[in-house]
Specification:
Layout (H helix, E strand, L loop, with lengths): L8 E11 L8 E7 L4 E6 L1 H8 L7 E13 L2 E14 L34 E2 L20 H6 L38 E9 L3 E5 L5 E11 L5 E7 H7 L8 E5 L2 E4 L11 E5 L4 E4 L30 E10 L3 E4 L6 E10 L4 E8 L1 H12 L4 E10 L5 E12 L4 H12 L7 E2 L17 E2 L1 H4 L14 E11 L7 E4 L7 E4 L2 E4 L4 E3 L3 E12 L2 E8 H8 L3 H8 L5 H9 L4 E13 L2 E13 L2 H16 L1
Parallel strand pairs: 3-5, 10-13, 18-20, 18-21, 22-23
Antiparallel strand pairs: 1-2, 1-4, 2-3, 4-5, 4-6, 7-9, 7-11, 8-9, 9-10, 11-14, 12-13, 15-17, 15-19, 16-17, 17-18, 19-20, 23-28, 23-30, 24-28, 25-26, 26-27, 28-29, 30-31
Subunit structure: Heterotrimer of RPA1, RPA2 and RPA3 (canonical replication protein A complex).
GO cellular component, one term: nucleus
Subcellular location: Nucleus
Length: 621
């Protein structure tokens, strides 16, 4: 007989059965647990299922249950195994033994009462000196035979029976269930979790309810085990709690509905989501330590990123920063405000690199810190993966950045970089993918300025899609006599003209009290194939000159032209990696080719050397 001791409950798997998964085809298993005399049917949690799939746990394996919970399924008690340890193996697990003829039930005082219908016992961790049957394990009174289960299931010994409702006013203590133990089969749960992020309030017209407007918003919840789940608040509950729930605070949440997650609409890594409606209860937990409730990071290899494109699922990245681009900005279409952005390049042990775009404060503060450090490690949580340039990564509002993090994974990455990574030949994770060859992205191979130029008879119509090419070029000169910039409306970037004490915009017919200057200039670039004049607009010109147009204007308009000319000469003969757009434009009934800089960044000579070594190696193979 397999019995328990003071270290926990020891049981043997008498059977393992595969179940149909509820999401994404992941394996799910049920099993029979036996102590050598009696048995009970149980379900294995996701993290234990992976160990079954790997062959670590199988029929005949002896387990020590370290954490489990009891659920009521169709009136029968069914344990959910959350964690366990493998302690051995038996060749022939004992089958459940029916009661002998004439045997009597144990006295009522010797049995643990069964849970009330619709209730659930809290998750239990095995502690030293505790267990079933007073011996620290699971005895025969805890695991009933099939006949006993039909008469009324008995919970595993050591599991407390439900007390008063955790939302009873004035209750001093509440039993919280781990988020990882939630499942659609039980609604009598209570969790204690921190609001990691809160989305915007949304509404839609519900045609099934006579066109009534339905409100909702979503939050990401994290518990003390580091498990995250998305919860959506609906209708009146959403309106009541939208201004109440605050990011970073901890709440008791109960009486919600757990359902399989739809990967098309959720960004949180969990097989389930929670729906909260008017029957749900939420209450702030003021005594909880929110600092202990941090989501566990699950780093993915850069080489596997192409598999995440086109999905809403967010990923965590850990990499060595091999390049940091200059700080730039883009203008939001909805309100015309400037949003800071910066590109960095990460590499890891897979030998692949990826470009990560940082936005807002991350681009300004974290980007500046990364720029000052020699090849730091960076951890970025909850990034979105796109197919731009084959594959690329972008941060979002909830992304968290940690520079030179600690931990075993970080130590391994730093060791790899110091030993071989710093001299290894690295390639982009999106190299060779079909999306990298589309016109919207940079070409995987370098082109030349001469290859860009086309004769008039080779030009396509003005309505044809533009073509793009990636070019390494040196800026030869910027003509100081050109206009360089124009006076623009601060709201729509259209040209304005001085009118009285203001600035008149012909586009919207409004007069503005102030204007901003925006670059629109020509610059001559050259490479080993020749030279070409390219149009450079505001965002790219800011990166090229390192100054805004409003800062350059006093130099250009000053009586002494030397400081202005010296500023332009400072950028001459600097080397850049350009993404050049080529399109046809009709002028006076004649087609002309227009070349403009879509994006640019300074040449990283370390990355460029690696690229050239890779080309030489490939050509000699």
């Amino acid at each position: 007989m397999f019995i328990g001791n003071r270290h926990g409950a020891f049981l043997c798997l008498s059977a393992v059965e595969s179940l149909t998964s509820l999401s994404e085809g992941k394996p799910k298993f049920s099993c029979g647990l036996s102590d050598g005399a009696d048995s009970i049917s149980a379900v294995l949690a996701t993290q234990v299922n992976l160990r079954v799939g790997a062959g670590e746990i199988k029929q005949g394996t002896v387990l020590r249950l370290t954490e489990y919970t009891i659920n009521l399924v169709n009136g029968a008690a069914r344990p959910l195994v959350l964690d366990c340890e493998v302690v051995g193996h038996c060749d022939e697990p004992a089958a459940a033994t029916p009661p002998a003829a004439g045997a009597t039930e144990p006295p009522a005082t010797a049995r643990t009462p069964a849970p009330a219908p619709g209730k659930e016992n809290k998750a239990v961790k095995a502690e030293p000196g505790t267990g079933a049957g007073g011996s620290g394990g699971v005895g025969t009174a805890a695991l009933k035979t099939p006949a006993a289960v039909k008469r009324g299931p008995t919970p595993l010994a050591g599991v407390a029976t439900p007390g008063p409702s955790p939302f009873t006013p004035g209750s001093a203590r509440r039993a919280a269930q781990p988020i990882q133990a939630l499942n659609p089969y039980n609604n009598g749960w209570t969790i204690k979790a921190r609001v990691a992020s809160k989305g915007q309030m949304r509404s839609f017209e519900n045609k099934g309810a006579g066109g009534a407007t339905t409100s909702l918003f979503s939050v990401e919840l994290v518990d003390e085990q580091g498990t995250a789940i998305e919860a959506t608040l609906w209708r009146e509950l959403a309106e009541r709690y939208f201004d109440v729930l605050e990011e970073g605070k901890v709440y008791w949440i109960s009486r919600g509905k757990v359902k399989p997650a739809n990967r098309n609409f959720t960004t949180v890594r969990n097989d389930y989501t929670i729906n909260l409606d008017n029957g749900s209860e939420i209450e702030e937990c003021t005594e909880a330590d929110a600092s202990r409730m941090q989501a566990r990071l699950n780093y993915v290899s850069i080489a596997t990123l192409p598999g995440y494109t086109g999905k809403r699922l967010l990923v965590d990245l850990l990499g060595v920063v091999t390049a940091v681009g200059p700080l730039g900005s883009v203008k939001r279409q909805r309100d015309g405000t400037e949003l800071a952005r910066r590109d960095i390049t990460l590499a890891d042990q897979s030998g692949k690199t990826v470009t990560v775009t940082l936005w807002g404060r991350s681009a300004e503060e974290s980007g500046a810190e990364l720029e000052a450090l020699p090849h730091p490690l960076v951890s970025i949580s909850q990034c979105r993966v796109t197919d731009y340039n084959g594959v690329s990564v972008s941060t979002i509002t909830r992304s968290a950045i940690a520079i030179n993090p600690e931990g075993e994974e970080a130590d391994e990455l730093r060791g790899w970089w110091d030993a071989t990574g710093c001299t290894a030949s690295l390639s982009h994770a999106g190299e060779g993918l079909a999306s990298a060859l589309k016109s919207g992205g940079a070409a995987p191979e370098r082109s030349t300025l001469a290859a860009l130029r086309k004769e008039k008879d080779a030009l396509q119509g003005a309505d044809a899609k533009p073509e793009y090419a990636s070019i390494s070029a040196t800026i030869a000169a910027i003509d100081p006599a050109q206009s360089l910039y124009y006076q623009a409306c601060p709201d729509n970037n259209r040209k304005v003209v001085a009118q009285g004490d203001g600035w008149f915009c012909e586009f919207d017919g409004k007069t503005y009290p102030a204007m901003v200057r925006r670059y629109v200039m020509q610059a001559r670039f050259c490479d080993d194939s020749g030279e070409a004049t390219l149009s450079v607009f505001d965002d790219q010109a800011r990166m090229l000159l390192g100054m805004a147009a409003d800062e350059v204007a006093p130099l250009k308009e000053a009586p002494d032209p030397k400081p202005y000319e010296a500023m332009l000469e400072r950028v001459a003969w600097s080397e850049w990696l350009l993404r050049v757009q080529s399109r046809s434009q009709e002028y006076n009934g004649e087609l002309r080719q227009r070349l403009s800089v879509a994006s640019l960044k300074r040449i990283d000579f370390i990355e460029e050397s690696r690229r050239m070594v890779a080309l030489l190696t490939a050509s000699s193979a």
